[in-house]
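User: Run a structure prediction on this.
Assistant: Running it now.
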Amino acid sequence: MTACVHDHGAYGAQRYGAADRIGAGNLLTAERRLAALSLVRTGALHDLGHVIENGAPRIQPNQTPFVMTLSARADNVIRRRRAAGATNDAGTTLERIEMTTHVGTHIDALGHATVGNRMYNGLDAAEVLDDFGLRELGIENVPPMVTRGVCLDASGLDGGEYLEPGRAITADDLERLRDRARVEIGEGDVVCVNTGWGRWFMRDNDRYVSGEPGIDESGARWLTERGVVAIASDNMAVEVVPNPDHPRLVLPVHQHALAEAGVYLIENIVLDGLVAAGHAEFCFVLLATKYRGATGCPVRPIAMV
């Protein structure tokens, strides 16, 4: 696939019209789905999602804890049904879950980030935000993703097994990693950047959320200029934390990707198996649950090769 570079200012209304609400999702065409499926040679599958459980890592105070409890247990249900005259002891169990939708492996909706009050495609946050969800740009708008995936392994850039927090992965780094992987990056791709930092997920959560290696704004712009649909990484925010210009800059990649370019971010993705198998190109599949007005949702992406 030949790399296709666009003017990085051609986003939103300039490219897709004033009514657009899916951003780079417009690039998920039938032709690209067929091309991605043609990459499947063996039928082998890599699960790119974490198990979500009580104690899942979170960044306080914005992210609330994931808590799951059983709200109806089979033993209690059977007692109630016996009292009502049932004789076949049909037990059923249900749970109640309290969580932020940004837990575990998840995708950010375009409405997750703002630049001041400005949201994707020039929308005003004052008009979009509601106590009960986003009036526009919610996760229900994310199209199903069946497209070409590219994995760039940045974990060894500094000679170790993983990068350290605050290590920015720049545009120059990404270009070298692309060349090393012998792949091109083009329109409609999902690019997965492996930092090695995902090893600490549920192994040392305090360490995992204390900071992270990740792409900086130059890296994000290098990717969005090539027309990618989404950027994924094995960390909490895709981008480097703290930012090299901290405290002046906080989450500039979120601002550029989501609010300006309309490119989705996939966080806490699991890339170990894909990297170990040496797969730089694959068929990427992700379906976002349609919670109306939500700013993101947990997902279970897969790579087929």
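The longest strand covers residues 145-153.
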